[in-house]
Specification:
Strand 3 (95-96) and strand 4 form a beta hairpin. This protein starts with a helix and ends with a helix. The chain has an eight-stranded mixed β-sheet, sandwiched between helices. It has one domain (24-275): Rossmann fold. 50% of the residues lie in helices and 15% in strands. The chain is globular, with a radius of gyration of 19 Å. Helix 2 packs across helix 11. The chain is an alpha/beta fold. It binds adenosine-5'-triphosphate and magnesium ion (MG).
Length: 280
């Protein structure tokens, strides 16, 4: 057999094994405390990743408190509850935002919101894995805290980006998330973003406190993904229902989000290279 033919066979085998052991691509954006900026970050992060040429699916999983449609000024037609009620498939509720970015919107304030059990959430993860070949990353915007359902979601994700702010209450609640992931034997990567910072010192101090507590009580340190400044441009972009990175790419927080996206791409590239090496 010539070299080219055997290489082709090797590639086929690799593809088959990749199907059995898919690369890591599910990313939850979470927080202990509410209002730390998860939805703002998730939308801008997803958009910037898609700008780097990655195919991204962003799913609003803040069940019945969905904001993504408002943030992006989109009238929602298909919503995730229709999927939970098995009225529509996941593909049928995907909204094309642009060439590389797809969205799944949620609902808000439905009085008869379907009960979402762990099994229903598992059904979502199975359906996500079925369409995952279409995407480089699947990003899940979560509700704050870690009730049993949210924790189940976080534990099933390959990466958790924990968004906190420098306030001690937010740092404490971020620590609780790390602790709960730890006690659930979470095997994925925990990454921290400190949002709403007044300066770098502010961000550094918050992360240091989180890191020291995690090391002391849990024997592990989370990874610092980056910080984002508190800036009125963020508020303005939300009021105008626009993406900050799109309308004010020169602003400080937009630049910081771009740096976070680049760091995240590097981390995931290394992880996926290691993964490919393991399955060869
Ligand atoms: N870097 C920032 N600078 C200034 N304001 C910010 C920043 N990040 C977020 N905010 C403000 O914080 C508020 C909450 O943001 P967002 O809705 O994204 O938080 P959340 O974590 O998704 O909240 P929830 O827990 O309710 O889902 C928004 O009104 C936004 O204007
Ligand atoms: Mg939110």
């Amino acid at each position: 057999m010539n070299g080219q033919a055997s290489r082709l066979i090797q590639l086929r085998q690799l593809e088959e094994r990749e199907k059995q052991f898919p690369a890591s691509k599910i990313v939850s954006i979470c927080s202990g405390k509410g209002g730390t900026g998860k939805t703002f970050f998730a939308a801008n992060f997803a958009y910037q990743l898609s700008n780097l040429g990655k195919k991204v699916l962003l799913v609003d999983l803040d069940l019945n408190f969905s904001n993504l449609n408002i943030l992006l000024n989109q009238a929602t037609q298909e919503v995730i509850s229709e999927f939970f009620e098995q009225k529509k498939s996941l593909r049928e509720i995907v909204f094309k935002y642009n060439k590389n970015l797809d969205l799944v919107f949620g609902d808000s304030g439905r009085e008869d919101y379907p009960r979402v059990s762990k099994e229903v959430l598992d059904y979502l993860f199975i359906s996500l894995s079925r369409i995952s070949d279409d995407y480089d990353f699947i990003i899940l915007d979560s509700s704050a805290g870690a009730d049993h359902l949210t924790l189940h979601q976080l534990v099933r994700s390959d990466y958790n980006i924990i968004v906190t702010s420098p306030e001690p209450t937010a740092v404490m609640d971020a620590y609780v998330i790390i602790k709960l992931l730890n006690s659930s034997n979470y095997a994925g990567e925990k990454l921290v973003v400190v949002n709403k910072c007044s300066d770098e010192e502010d961000a550094g101090a918050a992360f240091a406190n989180l890191s020291v507590a995690s090391k002391h009580f849990l024997g592990e340190e989370p990874n610092f993904l980056g910080s984002i400044s508190f800036d009125s441009a963020v508020h303005k972009s939300i009021v105008h229902q626009e993406l900050l990175v799109e309308v004010a790419p020169q602003s400080q927080p937009a630049g910081e989000i771009s740096s976070i996206v680049k760091r995240f791409s590097t981390i995931t590239q290394v992880a996926n290279n290691n993964h490919s090496r393991q399955i060869i």
